[in-house]
Amino acid sequence: MKQRELALNILNKTIADESYSNLLMRRELNRIEPIKRAFVTNLVNGVLRKYEFLNYQFIEDIDSKTSLRVRLILCMAMFERFVLKQEDYVVNNEYVSLGRNKYEKAFINVLLHKHSSLKRSPDPDVNACLPKWIYDLLSRQYSQDDFRKILSVYQRIPKTYYRINRKKCVIEDLRHLGIEEVNEDSFCSENNLLKTREYRDGLFYVQDVNSSALYRHLDLKEKDTLLDVCCAPGSKLFNCLDILKPQNCYANDLHYHRVELIKKMAEKLGFYGINYLNLDGREIKDCINLRFDKILLDAPCSGLGVIGRKPDLKFHIRPEDLDELQVLQYQLLSAMDEILMNGGILLYSTCTLNKKENEKLIRKFLSENDEYILMEDETIINELGDCFYYAKMKKVG
After folding, report:
1. Do residues 360 and 126 touch, judged by C-beta distance below 8 A?
2. In degrees rounded to 5, what are phi and psi of residue 276?
3. How many structural domains comprise the chain?
4. What is the pLDDT of residue 1?
5. Which candidate among 144, 178, 201, 207 keeps its CA 20 to 30 Å from the CA of 261?
6. Domain final position from 68, 93, 125
7. Which of 75, 240, 301, 351 is catalytic?
8. Are residues 118 and 229 in the same domain?
9. Residues 120 and 217 grouped into a single domain
10. What whole-number distance in Å separates Cα of residue 385 and Cα of residue 274?
11. Residue 219 is part of a domain; what is its CATH number?
């Protein structure tokens, strides 16, 4: 199968069937040569990231009868021509050939010749490449400066960051891989390090640079007991094992297969003795007779902070989903009280930017639970990595 045809199939399934593009690519990229996979990945993510803007280019030329497949062909062609700077004749030849019959081919050919530049939309949400409801939500909740930063993060091509496994090496052991240090924990590289012996041996693992700093807010001490409530894929817990003993750590996830993934990665990294739980976080208090010094609740959320890395989320999340998530998040928070020791720290985090899942939820929790004090909270928005929110609370009575 040709590269562009494969990219088209992935895009069509992502939008039409609400499949996740990263899972599709993980499976489908094996059908083409390794040297061609980066192009397909760039094309798929690029079109998803700029879909609203690219689709707008043909808004006057298409109607409700125009299939999603044809729309995607046109969007891909415009992205490759104007963003990837591909030659016009290559774009025309390749994308016209993707038409299923002579009528589609002719239609695509006419439109590709008609559009010689990109035009801006009168609608700012279209230019920002966001569904209108997400644009309106975030523009209301954030200052102009912060909102511009969010839009910039959404449109940047994210780097892959790696987090060092201090139990197996120091940073000097990895310099020969051509790494660029970001801070004392994280690094990146222009090379794909996932194929290296060092990665296979567990000397480092993939983790967003902003996410990898979260564990510092737990104020960990070596003898602390820790519960990671929604642990998968496990990287935040692995950060804590720089300090804690594995046998004092409890990794929980609602889904059994995800618990198995945590366990597999932990063994690869050399972390043995972790206690694994497969429970609904709201019911942990009823299933175990333990109390913890520290609890990390990285709650299920709408994911609006990681759209830059996972642009297909724009097509999966709906406004009505947010209300259901807030109910679940509050139930999870409330369920932690019976298993957190007095003087213990409850660290709540999400990878969303929706303040109703973040600051407002925490303020409600604190108003209804006066034995907790807020030590700090922050929404992280920067060009380095993904956006997220955390709130550090201490139980004082």
Report:
1. no
2. -105, 135
3. 2
4. 65
5. 178
6. 125
7. 351
8. no
9. no
10. 28
11. 3.40.50.150
Can you tell me the distance from the alpha carbon of 67 to that of 16, in angstroms, rounded to the nearest whole number?
11
Which range of residues forms the domain containing residue 86? 3-125
Q: Same structural domain for residues 116 and 229?
A: no
Please write the tens of the pLDDT for every residue from 111-153.
999 998 999 999 999 999 999 999 999 999 999 999 999 999 9
Please identify, among 125, 158, 190, the residue that sits at the C-terminal boundary of a domain.
Answer: 125
Domain co-membership, 113 together with 252: no
Q: Are residues 114 and 222 in the same domain?
A: no
172-197 pLDDT per residue, tens:
999 999 999 999 999 999 999 999 99
Q: What is the CATH number of the domain that holds 51?
A: 1.10.940.10
Torsion of CA 7, 8, 12, 13, to 10 degrees: -40
Query: Which pair of structure tokens corresponds to residue 206?
Result: 């993939």
Q: What is the mean pLDDT of residues 151-173?
A: 95
| 169 catalytic residue (yes or no) | no
